[in-house]
Write a structure and sequence with these properties.
Layout: E1 5-11, H1 17-26, E2 40-42, E3 53-57, H2 65-74, E4 77-83, H3 87-103, E5 113-118, H4 128-137, E6 141-146, H5 155-167, E7 174-175, E8 180-181, H6 183-196, E9 203-204, H7 206-217, H8 223-236, E10 241-242, E11 245-247, H9 248-260, H10 264-273, H11 284-287, E12 299-301, H12 303-316, E13 323-324, H13 326-332, E14 357-358, H14 359-372, H15 374-384, H16 386-389, E15 399-401, H17 405-411, E16 418-425, H18 431-438, H19 443-448, E17 457-464, E18 467-475, H20 485-488, E19 492-498, H21 504-516, E20 523-528, H22 543-549, E21 556-558, H23 569-579, H24 599-602, H25 607-620, H26 625-642
Parallel strand pairs: 1-3, 1-4, 4-5, 5-6, 16-18, 16-19, 19-20, 20-21
Antiparallel strand pairs: 2-3, 7-8, 9-11, 10-11, 12-15, 13-14, 17-18
Helix pairs in contact: 9-10, 14-15, 25-26
Amino acid sequence: MRKDVRILLVGEPKVGKTSLIMSLVSEEFPDEVPLRAEEITIPADVTPERVPTHIVDYSEAEQSEEQLYQEISKANVICIVYSVNNKKSIEKVTSHWIPLINDRTDKDSRVPLILVGNKSDLVEHSSMETILPIMNQYSEIETCVECSAKNLKNISELFYYAQKAVLHPTGPLYCPEEKEMKPSCIKSLTRIFKVSDLDNDGVLNDNELNFFQRTCFNIPLAAQALEDVKNVVRKNITDGVKDNGLTLKGFLFLHTLFIQRGRHETTWTVLRRFGYDDDLELTQEYLFPLLKIPPDCTTELNHNAYLFLQGVFDKHDKDRDCALSPDELKDLFKVFPYMPWGPDVNNTVCTNEQGWITYQGYLSQWTLTTYLDVQRCLEYLGYLGYSIINEQESQAASITVTRNKRIDLQKKQTQRSVFRCNVLGAHNSGKSGFLQAFLERNLVRQRKMKDDHKSYYAMNTTYVYGQEKYLLLHEVSPDLDFLSDTDLACDVVCLIYDVSNPRSFEYCAKAYKRYFMDSKTPCMIIAAKSDLHEVRQQSTLPPLDFCRKHRLHPPQPFTCNSTDAPSKDIYTKLTTMAMYPHAKLRCMCACNRCTFCVSHNLLNSELVRSIKATLYTALLNRCSKSCAWMAVFLFAVHLLTSC
């Protein structure tokens, strides 16, 4: 809604423009009337719509045409005043004033006009018979008011209608020639209906209607009032009520009826509650609420947001197969002005055998969007009506901004649920296969996927000590000379080489020494295509010796050429490394495999969890029993020394 209203009064000399303004202000007819009244401002607290209103007078005797044109361009609504006892002033409405105003305003955003017949106290007849044809001819005319500045008849009503023409304009909603709502209005109300249809059954039942009424007007409807509304629809339109609920057809009919009866404010209240501006576009404030994100912090969906998205999924998963078919996905996104997910989403998250996005994949895609582009996520949630359905001030309430990563390192614990792993490797080293394997696709399924819809991201869940976490894999460009800060900023790094290509590991060695050797980011080296014959790598050091020298995990064998879905163990390890970056997974014992050798750093904080992490990782890496017993021994020593 506009923050203020500017009303301009124009008309022939002596029709009473100035008198109307002065009568409104003083609530009595002035003894002396100046040539022109000064601009006045009516405070918000004394206007029906609670909006400041500026009233501007025009005087041909005191102002130039250029000044008139400037005032027309600034006005939100223009009152063309004529005298009901002066035919010439009525004729000038169409011969002079309307053409002049239309010439000075944009055709696509015509300023609303109010026809004002003043001096009704001087005649016994009405001028409406003459005015009605004019109103039918010009759609920009909102209404006509006959009044009298002398006896104060309809003075306050005049300025109320002028306010209303600005705050609740007819133009965007209704076409008087066709006697029906405009397509843009129908489109907006259709989205509102679909958002309000909480169970997606095509009708608004009594509970949904009451929720809608309370959301828009802050009061529920009594049972009898609900029944009266449905009876009005039943009497006037077929298929307006179904299963004792209001259909879309009935919903649109009700709003058409409101507009035809001059109750535009009802429809506008609904539209504005759901985020629409005067042009029936969703406002920037609604779609992109303010959200401050400090440096080195990430964004995640909170519990309420996931519950909301689960509800959206459930109401569109008609066949209850825990996946969204193309038709179900299309139905879900009908409330969007465009299709937000492209075909590459099928290569980014989990799908079923038919290529349909699963429930797990659906939540993963939302999590990915929130992490990479939180503003886009806010926009999407706005289209779905998150703030309305969840009764929040804005969809910013759905976002958790994580604390600075430095604090996580200092405290040696993290509150985050989403971790980013950047995947680097030479051309054809197996990066894409590694990403797709994370989505539970073996090599056979990967070959069935469409290459022209390749994605450089893969998002899925992993479980670390029973906690569900999201791991985001990002395949980085292999050109080491052009890596950006974004390519390097992550929670864990995965360096992949092809065991069957003798030149493949050299890239990993260069990348590690150039970018990650002195960083605090944990690194893991993956020996991809481990089902193929392993050849000697043409590098300064063999992969195993390189890892020992730099105190890294030994290369982790990996293949997606299996009959079943690839194992997720390696992704769990990556997530564990991302969760405990302070552990660094350095190794100082002969086995060169376990996290035990840094357990003394873990004992001072999060003792029990860290010991579990040590044992768990040792088991994953098939370390010797002595390493596990050594962890228990150190734990006992710590307890004794702390007593």
